[in-house]
Amino acid sequence: xxxxxxxxxxxxxxxxxxxxxxxxxxxxxxxxxxxxxxxxxxxxxxxxxxxxxxxxxxxxxxxxxx
Length: 66
Description:
4 helices, elongated, DNA binding, DNA recombination, Integrase-like_cat_sf, Tyr recombinase domain-containing protein
């Protein structure tokens, strides 16, 4: 589910967890590119670099840059 882009809250609920902390601890690393992909999908008006291979941290930093 995580590798296919399911939000961690959905994964946590499907597994019976009361919150996302356990899912984050055990499953978030399975989809490190999801953060960068989500930034590009949800913020189309940002002037992001066209390099989709940008690291997760670099994409997040770029999107949050003021």
